[in-house]
Amino acid sequence: xxxxxxxxxxxxxYSNRTQGRFHISPRMLLVGGLLLAGVIAATILLxxxxxxxxxxxxxxxxxxxxxxxxxVQGDQYIKEGSLREFNGRLRIQIxxxxxxxxxxxxxxxxxxxxxxxxxxxxxxxxxxDAQLNSRFDAAYRKLIAQKLDSTTLLIKELHSKTLSxxxxxxxxxxYNNFKQLExxxxxxxx
Length: 190
Description:
Helices cover 73% and strands 0% of the residues. By secondary structure, the protein is mainly α. It is rod-shaped and about 125 Å long. It starts with 25 loop residues before the first helix and ends with a helix.
């Protein structure tokens, strides 16, 4: 024992190693913390970026139901043969597309507010007025052309906002069908 330490405890030898088994520098802790924060932020963003097209799906379902009611009313009052034939094809197409779309919808709840907004009482009143004034066919043709146009626009909007592949496929089919019907309606018969 060294006589210079008489009555005192000797100093512990200094070493460059820390007491733990692993040494983590502050820079590594900072990098690791930033990496962890990035992973958490990415997880939150991905989980919150789900399909936000539910209200558009409900609007389309309500619009198709209203369009179907208009075709039922049209069956009662249409006098022109070609328009009656077109109306029959339209009814069949609406029923077919409604079935295909309803199987693909991701939003299953109905909203009475959306259904009421899409009911379009003014259009039904205009058709009733036209029927009373003996000009139902012309008014019906114009109204259905407008409804087909607005429906195809809604289908395009919903297609751009949904993430569901099955719904996109059903929307593509419905869009093509309605565009074809719209062309048939607006093209004069030869």
